[in-house]
Amino acid sequence: MIYQSDALTVTRLEGDIAELNFDLKGESVNKLDRATVNALTAALDALEAEPGLKGLLLTSAKPVFIVGADITEFTAMFGAGAEQISGFTGVNNDNLNRLQNLPYPSCVAINGFALGGGFEVCLACDFRVMSSAAKVGLPETKLGILPGWGGTVRLPRIIGVDEAVTWIATAKDQRADNALKVGAVDAVAEPEQLRELALATLANAVAGKLDYSERRRAKSSPLPMNDTEATMAFFTMKAMVQQQAGRNYPAPLKAVDVIEQARGMGLEDALKVEAAAFAELASTDVAAALVGVFLSDQLLSKKARGWEKKADRKVARAAVLGAGIMGGGIAYQSAYKGVPIRMKDINQEGLDLGLKEANKLLTKRVDRGQMSASQMGEVLTSIDPTLSYAGFEDIDIVVEAVVENRKVKLAVLAETEQQVSEDTILASNTSTISITRLAEALQRPQNFCGMHFFNPVHAMPLVEVIRGEKTSDTAIARTVAYATKMGKKAVVVKDCPGFLVNRVLFPYFDGFSKLLRDGADFQVVDRVMERWGWPMGPAYLLDVVGIDTGVHAGEVMAEGFPDRMKLDFKTATEVMFEHKRYGQKNGKGFYDYVPDKRGKARKTTTEESYELIAPVVGERTEFADEDIVARMMLPMATEMARCLEEGIVGTPAEADLALLYGLGFPPFRGGIFRWLDTVGMDYIAEASQKFADLGKSYELTEGMQAKRADAATYY
User: In this protein, which residues make up the domain named 3-hydroxyacyl-CoA dehydrogenase NAD binding (predicted)?
Assistant: First the structure.
């Protein structure tokens, strides 16, 4: 044994080869936390002192190689200032430089994920052999930062600038075949042959059959581009990256800037440019928000795993009641993820529509090369359309997805309960109707909960799992397990009108209605909120949701929370509804929708909307962008604060992710609570006071007032 620690070991093999094996004790994966970085420093000391070595093999004892740096350490570091951040990156940059410059060749066997800092370790090695089951990549720009341990320097010098920019800017994991194609790795092996091939590659390098010195020279030298080539290439790349990333995500473009600035430099100077840019980005609100989203997602996954452990059994057979678009979407998602499902409707037309929806979604996957025709056939055969309850006695969970009408749902649920076993879980895909009230029709309310999917089911990650007054932990656990199996992010919430997402969405829509009442142009409001980061403004969103659906849900919310959600004026949205302008579903709402060449509805402006709403809106008034944002966002923020204080949602992290995954809340802002922490409660209090005359939904909650008094934050 040359060196041993709780993070890695170095042993001597036959043929004077050393093996550096990453195996972080107490963790399921390897990561480059401070302990591992310090251990790597000590291991390199030992390697440099060990006589007679001819080569180094890097391996992992885990199913992955190294998943990257320890993100939890980032959050504390980001607020510490540029000097401390540079110190953090500097230690491991020294390590990787020493690894690259060992007096003998090195080869890494990439057995699983090698991401971020883990892949940067690989790039410092002379040769890279990759398992066909592994993936590599530099995902840092998704976190609002850039590679900080030489990724922006070594990768362009290994695979070329164009490919390196694509890898870094898109932050996508790369499969072995593509990594081999572009030259990021030297060979690909089946998992059981990986070690043998890596050792053979290293042996050839030791024997002089493979030149590693030239590889090192290329990684340490300026990029082979003249000024004319560089000017043209970087101009094109910047335009492409800027268009794809948008103005709210600075990291991808910054990474391109760093590669350009360092193109004429050697390794040491180029690393200094990278370190300075890393420190700059790490100090931004965007990085704090995106890293926060990543950590919150880990928390949500941990909670889901906790519920799965409590589940009495796995969901092997499911059913959905009500076909159509929603039922077909649920059936598709379940079958695609490996859970066979019965799709029941009361008429054949409904079943045909549900199967058509599933077939359409599967055909798209085949057309994109994401699955074969035979795989599509297997998925379709696992969807069993039926007009009867035959076989329902063997179903583990039934999702009711019939029309959003309380009486209809009560009847369907009561009927279904008589057809299933005593321990079958019933779940309602309702968006507004109380789970506790729906449970009144059931003999076993403990086996009933809400399972609210968002439309379109295949595209929206969120599922709200709603606990009624009598819902058991068993029902919640099995439903969360099913949602996870379907590839969804489950957030468990308590029952209340609108549950969580719709409860906070409709105050946002109310803010929109009040702006129009006071003379704002709905197109201007849309543009302002889209610039703020929303994927679509409120008028456009209402059209997509369906104005009829919005009006109905708004009535439910007004009944549930009359003190702040019952409006005392007729809204422009209600006028749209009265004139049967329901949005995209019938081609006309606030906007008109005309199919383009691909058949996709294209939004167009129409004067008819303005003419119809003229009697209920004020004289056209110009509002400052900041005031539009405050009037739209304050009602959503105060309502979400109430939900947290009432225990409707468990944590700020779950609340924030519910809006990200359910509504498309701007990720670079991190969620509603992360946004409140960023702007500060003093700012929110000033805005609240400024718009106090707009009603109770603009008042700070007791919890918000306490946060302000204590100078406390949600995170």
Answer: 318-496
